[in-house]
Amino acid sequence: MMASRVLRSRPKAIFLNSARLDYDKKLDFSRLTSLTDLICNEVDMVNDESEIVDLVQNSQAEIVITKEMEVPAAAVAKFPDTVKLLCEAGTGYNNIPIDLARNRGIDVVNIPTYSTESVAHMVVTYIMSFGAAIFDQAKMLYDGNRTNFTIFQHPIYEIHGKTLGMVGGSGTIGTAVADVAIPLGMNILISSRAGRLPAGHKYENNPRVKVVPLDDLLRESDFVSINCPLNSQTRHSIGNREIRLMKPTAFLINTARGAIINEAELIACMKENVIAGAGLDTQETEPPADDSDIWKLPNVFLTPHIGWRRQETRQRLVDMTADNIEAYIKGQTANVVN
């Protein structure tokens, strides 16, 4: 049952951490401001529970918007009764207590597909960078080491003919990765608890796409990409055991959610050079703790969760958030996750 709405011309809304999205002031919020009386709290994150509650209460908001921000259950429990819609300006909603929100009559909505191509291209960027040792060569030049220009010393590989294994790769993003990887000549392995692709999937009968058990995927892949959602079943599902099944020449790539990997166990494996490298656009804690060894590992390459940050992708996100709010105003709430 959808939350009922008190009719008024423009509902009040607050974006609790708008700078997470519009950090460069290049996005157009005009649709959002035409639909709502919008307050933008121009910070990257609000971490204090009482501050979250104060912002929502003081704004008298009917609509609360967040981007990748932890919204504690204790804060939602104190939201005023005016709140009827909680918009996650993104895909993952593991940071929101959706059951409690439902019990309080608050619809939680997300945006499932705004960054499909952008995240898929991030996976492929890592693959091609690893294949040409781009990260290692850039670091050498930054350190003043020009040895590669006289005696080349890094193993580099053609992508054509290599195997890409995608954990949870039958979904929208995994399919978009395959859309790029197959024309590059890669073979695709997908792990799925169902043991097969969904009926009607575009690659259901493609001879270069196979569905295999996770252990087989890990053993056979040259690149392993994590593309599954974070939930109770997938949290820390890639750890010491799984990494040690991989080829010593293989690379692990995560553009999904950081906590799918047991980061402490990954760090231990990378210190032993169990695999060739890891590319992490997401980390278990973002950013990692200042004293985390993950910053220091020469075979682990970090990016600050940029898969969704391309300007066009962020503008699409703003527009699709407006779509969700407009649907709610019309009494046709869409993309409800609770």
**Range of helix content:** 25-40%
Order of helices and strands: EHEHEHEHEHHEHEEHEHEHEEH
Number of strands: 12
Tally of contiguous helical segments: 11
Radius of gyration: 22 Å
Structural class of the helices, strands and pairings? alpha/beta
Low-confidence segments, given as residue ranges, are none
CATH structural fold name of the largest domain:
Rossmann fold
CATH architecture of the largest domain, by name, is: 3-Layer(aba) Sandwich
- Rough shape? globular
Range of strand content: 5-15%
| Whole-number mean pLDDT | 94
CATH uppermost class of the largest domain:
Alpha Beta
Rounded to the nearest angstrom, the distance between the terminal CA atoms is: 10 Å
Determine the CATH superfamily of the largest domain: NAD(P)-binding Rossmann-like Domain
Overall number of structural domains: 2
Largest sheet: 7 strands, parallel
Strand order of the largest sheet: 8-7-6-9-10-11-12
Question: What can you see in these coordinates?
Answer:
The chain has two domains: 12-114 and 310-329, NAD(P)-binding Rossmann-like Domain (Rossmann fold, 3-Layer(aba) Sandwich); 116-302, NAD(P)-binding Rossmann-like Domain (Rossmann fold), CATH 3.40.50.720. The protein is α/β, with parallel strands linked by helices. It contains eleven helices and twelve strands. It has a seven-stranded parallel sheet with strand order 8-7-6-9-10-11-12. Strands 2-1-3-4-5 form a five-stranded parallel sheet, with helices on both faces. It has helices at residues 30-35, 49-59, 73-77, 98-103, 116-131, 134-142, 172-181, 214-220, 240-245, 263-271, 311-329, and strands spanning 12-15, 37-40, 63-66, 85-88, 107-109, 163-167, 187-191, 209-212, 223-226, 251-254, 277-280, 300-302. Helix 5 packs across helix 7 (172-181). It comes from Odontella aurita. Residues 153-307 form the D-isomer specific 2-hydroxyacid dehydrogenase NAD-binding domain. Pfam families: 2-Hacid_dh, 2-Hacid_dh_C.
